[in-house]
């Protein structure tokens, strides 16, 4: 909950500071998340799963297609049951990225982003011998590629791929709406 309040405060501050500039944007979408989780504490338990997740972001584009973006990404909840052993992982991230874009035609833009993400993981392992509940957080790299189709001066649809390269590796493929101010 603290992360969401922090992100909302950061987003509101960035919006207030850039609302008159015309280069600020906010957006959100739905993503298919594919995870690969290796938990060394559970004899190298390898958990691969997928989930449908959401994301929210706020950014500011400077001149020449270079910008910055803050985002919140739900990285999904994953579980596995093998005999008497079960595992559960829930992850989310707050990110800060640099975004570089180029217009292919007036309505179509492609972009790339790279940055860092503060990733929080809740990991639960249960077996006959042990029960482990661990809250873990780390800062890791993210990168992504996408395309944006403009429908009007202020409304766009986007599709993108993002990879979070953390203890819980997650690939996101999704689409959403972007509103420019």
Please, what is the average pLDDT? 83
Largest sheet: 8 strands, antiparallel, barrel
Question: Termini distance?
Answer: 27 Å
Could you give the order of the helices and strands? HEEEEEEEE
* CATH fold call: Porin
What is the number of E strands?
Answer: 8
The spatial strand order of the largest sheet comes to 1-2-3-4-5-6-7-8
Shape: elongated
> What is the CATH C level class, in words?
Mainly Beta
Radius of gyration: 18 Å
Helices, by number, come to: 1
Residue share in β-strands: over 45%
Instruction: State the domain count.
Output: 1
> What assembly state would you assign to the polypeptide chains in this entry?
single chain
How does the helix and strand content classify structurally?
Answer: mainly beta
Please render the helix and strand layout as text.
Elements: H1 2-18, E1 24-39, E2 45-61, E3 66-82, E4 85-105, E5 108-126, E6 131-150, E7 155-165, E8 168-180
Antiparallel strand pairs: 1-2, 1-8, 2-3, 3-4, 4-5, 5-6, 6-7, 7-8
What does this molecule look like?
It is a single chain. Strand 7 (155-165) and strand 8 form a beta hairpin. The chain contains one helix and eight strands, in the order H-E-E-E-E-E-E-E-E. It has an eight-stranded antiparallel barrel with strand order 1-2-3-4-5-6-7-8. The protein has a single domain, classed as Porin, CATH 2.40.160.20. It has one helix spanning 2-18, and strands at residues 24-39, 45-61, 66-82, 85-105, 108-126, 131-150, 155-165, 168-180. It is mainly beta. It is elongated.
Main attributes?
181 residues; mainly beta; Porin; eight-stranded antiparallel barrel; 74% strand; elongated
């Amino acid at each position: 909950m603290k992360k969401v309040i922090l992100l909302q405060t950061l987003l509101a501050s960035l919006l207030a500071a850039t609302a008159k500039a015309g280069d600020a944007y906010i957006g959100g979408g739905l993503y298919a998340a594919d995870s690969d989780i290796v938990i060394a504490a559970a004899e190298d338990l390898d958990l691969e799963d997928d989930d449908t997740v959401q994301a929210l972001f706020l950014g500011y584009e400077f001149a020449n297609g270079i910008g910055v973006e803050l985002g919140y990404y739900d990285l999904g909840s994953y579980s596995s049951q093998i005999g008497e052993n079960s595992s559960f992982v829930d992850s989310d991230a707050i990110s800060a990225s640099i975004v570089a874009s180029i217009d292919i035609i007036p309505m179509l833009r492609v972009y790339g982003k790279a940055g860092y993400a503060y990733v929080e993981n809740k990991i639960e392992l249960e077996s006959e011998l042990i029960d482990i509940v661990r809250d873990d957080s780390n800062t890791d790299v993210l990168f992504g590629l996408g395309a944006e189709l403009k429908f009007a001066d202020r409304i766009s649809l986007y599709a993108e791929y993002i990879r979070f390269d953390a203890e819980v590796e997650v690939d996101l493929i999704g689409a959403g709406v972007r509103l420019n101010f």
